[in-house]
Amino acid sequence: MSLELVQGDITTLAVDAIVNAANSSLLGGGGVDGAIHRRGGPEILAECRALRASRYGRGLPTGQAVATTAGRLPARWVIHTVGPVYTGQDERSSLLRDCYTNSLAVAHELGARSIAFPLISAGTYGWPVEDAVRQALVAIEEATVGPDEVRLVLFGADVLAVAREVVSER
C-alpha cells in the first residue's frame, strides 16, 4: 500500500472508498460524519438505518467498520467506523488502530483499490493530533490487506504540517 498525506475535504475525493469517522448511531452527526451525510445525500442515511435495523441495533461498536453506498459523493462506498473518545487516562490506542485496519479490511472485501481516511478521533473525540497521526501510520503500515492507494486527508494546513513532521520522524 502506498500512503499519501493530503490536505482537503474528504467528501470531494474521487476514490473507491472514503472512511467516515462516524458516531455509533450511524445516523449522522457533526464534523466529517455530518459533511459526508450532507454531501452524500439520503441514500447513505437510508442504508445506515437499514444496518441499525438489521445488524447494529445497539450501534456500531468502537473500532469496527461497515460499508454503505456513497450516495452522491464521487466515491463508490463509504466505510463507517467509530473512533474511540480520548480520555488521557485509558489506553485506547488499539481501538483507534482497529478503526484503520478494519476499514482497510472492508475496503479489501469490496475490491476497492483506493481509500481516503480522515484523521479519526482527532476532532470532536479529542485525540491529540500528533498521536492520532502516529496511530494511523502504525495501523496502515501493519495492515495485511487493503487497497493499493491510501490517502490520509487532513483538514487544514496546521494538521498537515503536524502529520508531515510525524512522518519525517519515523
UniProtKB/TrEMBL annotation:
InterPro entries from the UniProt entry: Macro_dom, Macro_dom-like
Domain Macro: residue ranges: 1-170
A family per Pfam: Macro
Protein name, entry field: O-acetyl-ADP-ribose deacetylase
Organism the protein comes from: Rugosimonospora acidiphila
